Fold this protein.
Amino acid sequence: DTGVSQNPRHKITKRGQNVTFRCDPISEHNRLYWYRQTLGQGPEFLTYFQNEAQLEKSRLLSDRFSAERPKGSFSTLEIQRTEQGDSAMYLCASSQWLAEAFFGQGTRLTVV
Amino acid sequence: DAKTTQPPSMDCAEGRAANLPCNHSTISGNEYVYWYRQIHSQGPQYIIHGLKNNETNEMASLIITEDRKSSTLILPHATLRDTALYYCIDTPDFGNEKLTFGTGTRLTIIP
C-alpha cells in the first residue's frame, strides 16, 4: 500500500498523559499536513510542512501540541498533558501539489 | 472559516446523476474550487478541482458558472458507494495551501 499511513489507528489515554502519533506520507510528496476533526465538523487545519520545514501553524495548535518532520519524510504529532477536549480524529495528508492532497485513515484519540 | 456554502443534505436515486451545488460568492480570481468527499470513518478523498473551465475526470464533472460564484459537482451515475459527505472548498494553489473545510453536504444514495 503506497498511501498515507497513520499509526496508531486508535488511542485511548488518560487525561494528563502525553501521546504521539505518526504519519508516513506518500514517499515522493514534499508537503505534509495535519488536521483535526471532531464529530459533526469538517477537518480543521493544524499545521503544514514543506520537506522538514514547518511553514504554518494554526492557532488551534496550543503550546501542548508539537509536530516534527525531522528528515522531510515521516512526521510525528505529540500532545502533552492531554485534555478531554483533545478527543478527536487526527488526520494527516500529503501532496506534491495542493490539488491532490491524499489523506490517511486518521488516528482517533479518546481522552478519558 | 469556510467561504463556501453547501446544502446540509441531499438524496439521490441509485443510477441517477447526483448534482451537488456549492456557492462561493467571495471567490477571488486566483482561487480554485476543490471537491473532496469523506466516507464514514475514513480520511477525505480528492475528487476534482477547477479554476474557471468545466472539468471532468473518471470520478465526476465540475461545472463552474461564468461568474465563478457557484459550481456544481456531478456524479453521473450514482452508486451506493457514493454515499458520503461532500466538501466544496476554495483555496489558492500556491503559497498558503491549507484546506478550509466547511460542514459539507451529506449525500445519500437511495437504492
Remarks:
- The first strand of chain A starts at residue 5 and ends at 7.
- Chain A is about 0% helix and 50% strand.
- The two ends of chain A are 33 Å apart (CA to CA).
- Chain A touches chain B at residues 4, 31, 33, 35, 40-45, 48, 56, 58, 91, 93, 95, 97-106 (CB under 8 Å).
